[in-house]
Amino acid sequence: MSIIETPNENKPIKVKKTPKVFFTNKKRESIDGWLFVAPFVILTLVFLIGPIIVAFILSFKQYSLLDQTTILGAKSVGIDNYIKVFKDPVFLQALKNTCLYSIGVVPLQLIISLLLALVVDSKIKAKAFFRVAYYIPTLTSIVAVSTIFLFLFKKDGIFNKFLSIFGIAGRTWFNDPNFALMAIILMAVWSSVGVTMIIFLAGLQEIPQTVYEAAEIDGANKFQRFFKITLPLIKPTVFFNLVMTIIGTLQMFDQAYVISGGNGGPLNSTMTVVLYLYNKGFKEFEMGYASAIAFVLFLIIFTLTLIQKRLFKEEPQ
């Protein structure tokens, strides 16, 4: 639009031109939004999407970090790496150990963390203290936790001295193939139960107190209120914790690496899928085979997640 100024009759008429608008407000907002998310998008492409694509290509090749050839120039072996995975006795042992570890950790961690969440959500004194006390182990590094448990479970450690009170002979737990994985399970539950407890606590605090009051008026006892009100209303929280815990246990690496010194001993009793993947890729430099193991693990986790989602699917009202 042009504006005509006529201050007086003697001065000539001046016409002011409206400046051109290169970007509308809507376009400017769109550009600003892309500029804000650009760092995240770039980092995701470089450090997540890119490596996944490269690893998928490597899983069909015979490639070593010591090779002079590029990844694209490496020898293609088709699906031989995937066939080799299911014929590898060490991988099958690692998969068995990982499944046993997951079966041991998941129910224990979910049950204990839910009980602790119920305790710190109840009307007890010093609730803040107990919440902090239960959560502190999750802030401790795995190396420190492993060192503590190595000390507790050694031949003359505190745990064996406690067992001796009841006349039970002690043993070197982490050096015994029959008990090394069980000791790691106990360590994992102790060090990670605080995370799931906090998530359960958040779910419990979302339940309106009026629901409990109405149930109490109707004569429902504590167990009935728990099974008829609490569990159904925190079903999404249980599903989230279950999925995340299973994924975490199937990806277990650091505890087994520290306890066994990286070799999965004794007698591969603490060898896990991710530890075996690491040894194949970065110790034996078989990057193609290690990439195939990674995608097999991904398919296992993806399948289990879909099954859990189906089991926890909400029924139509």
TrEMBL record:
Keyword Transmembrane attributed: yes
Topology with respect to the bilayer: Multi-pass membrane protein
Tagged with keyword Membrane: yes
Domain of life: Bacteria
InterPro entries cross-referenced by the UniProt entry: ABC_transporter_permease, MetI-like
A Pfam family matched in the record: BPD_transp_1
Record keywords, A-Z: Cell membrane, Membrane, Transmembrane, Transmembrane helix, Transport
Coiled coil: none
Location in the cell: Cell membrane
Bilayer-crossing regions: 34-58, 100-120, 132-153, 179-202, 233-253, 287-307
Domain ABC transmembrane type-1: 95-308
Main location: membrane
Protein family (similarity comment): Belongs to the binding-protein-dependent transport system permease family.
Protein name: Sugar ABC transporter permease
Organism ancestry: Bacteria, Bacillati, Bacillota, Clostridia, Eubacteriales
